[in-house]
Design brief:
motor protein; Kinesin; 4 strands; 8 helices; Kinesin_motor_dom_sf; 217 residues; two-stranded antiparallel ribbon; 6% strand; actin filament binding
C-alpha cells in the first residue's frame, strides 16, 4: 500500500496534499465522519497515519474500513471476543474492529428477532477472506458463550426463557469447530495464485449461520 507519508522528504506534508483539518495525530480519530473536512487527500492521509501505527480498522460512519496489515496482529483472541461481546452499543472507548461489526449484528439479532447481513467487499488481496473468518470466529464463539458473559439483550432473552447456554457447551463447541474448519476445505478447491494474491479466492461466498431460539448457534 502506497502512503503519502512515505513521499515526504523535504518540506511540509500540508504543502503536498493540502490538509485542511487541524489534526496531526489521526490515531485518535476512529471514525472519519468526525472530521470537519472530508476530501480525498485528508482521508488518504488519515488512514495512512492509522495504518502506519498498526490501526488497520477505521470507521466511516457505520462502515468499517479494513486494510491488510501483512503481518500477524494479536487482536483476535478470545479475550477480544469477550471484550466486544460485553460492550454497549456505543462504546467509544473500544477501537474499530471487525468484532464490533459482528457484535452489532448479533445484538440486533437478539433485539429485533430478525435476520442480519454483513457484506464484505474489496479488492483482491485486501483481506476479505480473513475478515470473513474473523466474523465467523466471533459469531460462533459468542453463539457458544455462557449467557452470563453476553450482552444484556441476549442475556435478558435467555433468562426469560429459562435457558442456559452453558449446559450445551460441549455440543455447541463441536459445531463451532466444524463451521470454522469448512474454510480450509473451500480454499483448497476454490483458491489459486494470481499476480495480486498468492492465495486468492476465485469464487464468491455466501455464508449463512443459523441461531436457535436461545441465540445459540
Amino acid at each position: 500500500m502506497w502512503c503519502p507519508l512515505d513521499g515526504v522528504v523535504n518540506g511540509k506534508l500540508e504543502q503536498i496534499i493540502h490538509l485542511r483539518n487541524d489534526q496531526e495525530d489521526f490515531t485518535t480519530v476512529p471514525d472519519l465522519i468526525s472530521l470537519q473536512y472530508l476530501h480525498e487527500p485528508e482521508l488518504l492521509y488519515a488512514v495512512c497515519d492509522r495504518y502506519a501505527h498498526d490501526f488497520i480498522y477505521t470507521y466511516i460512519g457505520e462502515i468499517l474500513l479494513s486494510f491488510n496489515p501483512f503481518q500477524r496482529l494479536n487482536i483476535y483472541s478470545h479475550k477480544y471476543v469477550q471484550t466486544y461481546a460485553t460492550s454497549s452499543d456505543q462504546d467509544a472507548s473500544l477501537p474499530p474492529h471487525v468484532f464490533a461489526i459482528a457484535a452489532n449484528a448479533y445484538k440486533s439479532l437478539c433485539d429485533d428477532k430478525k435476520n442480519q447481513s454483513i457484506l464484505v467487499s474489496g479488492e483482491s488481496g485486501a483481506g476479505k477472506t480473513e475478515n470473513t473468518k474473523f466474523l465467523m470466529q466471533y459469531l460462533t464463539d459468542v453463539g457458544a458463550m455462557d449467557v452470563s458473559l453476553t450482552t444484556s439483550p441476549c442475556k435478558a432473552s435467555m433468562t426469560k426463557r429459562g435457558g442456559s447456554r452453558g449446559k450445551a457447551a460441549a455440543p455447541t463447541a463441536q459445531i463451532q469447530t466444524q463451521i470454522l474448519q469448512t474454510n480450509p476445505i473451500l480454499e483448497a478447491f476454490g483458491n489459486a495464485r494470481t499476480v495480486r494474491n498468492d492465495n486468492s479466492s476465485r469464487f464468491g461466498k455466501f455464508i449463512e449461520l443459523q441461531f436457535g431460539d436461545h441465540h445459540k448457534i
